[in-house]
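Why does residue order matter? Because the sequence determines the fold. Keep that principle in mind as you read this record.
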Amino acid sequence: MNRSHVLVFDHGTTSIRACIMDANGTIIARNQQNFEQIYPQPGWVEHNPTELWDITLQVARAALQEAGLSWENLAVAGLTNQRETVILWDSQTGQPIYNAIVWQCRRTAEFCEELKRLGHGPMIQDKTGLVIDAYFSASKIRWMLQNVPKAQQLLADHRLRFGTVDTYILWKLSGGECHVTDLTNASRTMVFNIHQRAWDADLLDLFEIPAAILPKVVGSSEPIGMIDTRLTEGVAVPLAGIVGDQQAALHGQKCWLPGTAKSTYGTGAFLVMNTGQTPVHSTQGLLTTLATEAHGKPAYALEGAIFFAGATLEWLNKKLDAFAHVREIDVLAHRLASNEGVYLVPAFAGLGAPYWDSNARGAVFGITQDTGKAHFVRAALESMAYQTQAVLAAMQSEAGLTLERLRVDGGVTRSDFLMQFLADILNVPVERTDDPELTAKGAGYLAGLAVGFWPNPEAIKTLPEPVQRFEPRMSAQERERLLAGWQQCVDRVLSKGVSC
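Structure:
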């Protein structure tokens, strides 16, 4: 058999893609399907796990057909995923007991605030590198265990299983043989000790989570099992290369050395800096997390999570009908010579790094009778750059590193306006790859390294990589003026700030 290609599943927050990579690192085929976003109550976000699984197989088969390949042509299948999202299921039937609770969901915010009031924050950050927030998995797992009647019965029968999206999909792909997650996803649950690299008994007790439901934790670049041959027309396809989406993008961008960083702009925006073998303890609202170095071995990283990036544009499109197609975004933004004092703070579900204020709410400032759609669109794009600057300033300060360039990827980076404004506000060059699939590629590289598809990272480093570079050209005075205006607006929406 000609095992000439790598299959990568990319489970995002709003869509699932299957990508087929060749030995040159080129995506020769892809198939993507969106799935339903479920909002049972304000601030609650859910996905249907059964729909996620059904789409997984559909996009894989469609991508293979588009490429003119079969399962026999696959050397390995890897997976990258939206992190923190929680699924619990019955190990006997494979049926989820409730919808997946998505990373964006705020239903456990009050419980997390109580943990902060009780003084658990320092202990949790010391062990996990994370700040207490409903964003992470632990409080969501606890909520399911306490609020879904079937959970306790299955637990008593030793049939309950927990996983983030990677774990559930790999369990289904392997026919129930693999109940695993990797270090990067485990490090986002808030019950995983990133120093010992193991589930933490104290945190499990705090969140009332039984260890029996947890998956085995493996490396991000190692073989873990096989796809159930009933799904692959009898062909044995290895499973390897599991990695959370932001760490996958970091690897795909080849940020393998300390001090290199990338920012991915999708539904949210995530700035991640590799700090090598040294975990950096943050006092400025950044997260210390596990990532990978060149060979796929564990490394540490600092991360700043921005909750709303592309989702802000989606809100403008769906709720305000600000534009009909994404192609109009840059056209609208360029209609104005400046933002004319209009700022949009997209705290629709609180603010992430470096503020971590779950009670903050979005606002638009500086509106006059002349304010129109162009102002809203431009302010939405600019908000992504301002938030990135706040995270990067904290990151460089705490890591003691100076960033020489920022690598970017994600669908929103197609906006030239955003790329230039980002370079101007950060005052460093921004490098955009023309490849929109860096997240999938990162997982594909890790999967390929695990089975020898690529012999070493050097073979990957030499693969072709077209990049477009945006140089800063804004004056320091203008930059400082804009950032000061932004900070005043942020101060107004913070729950401890001045009331709007």
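The CA atoms of residues 382 and 495 lie 22 Å apart.
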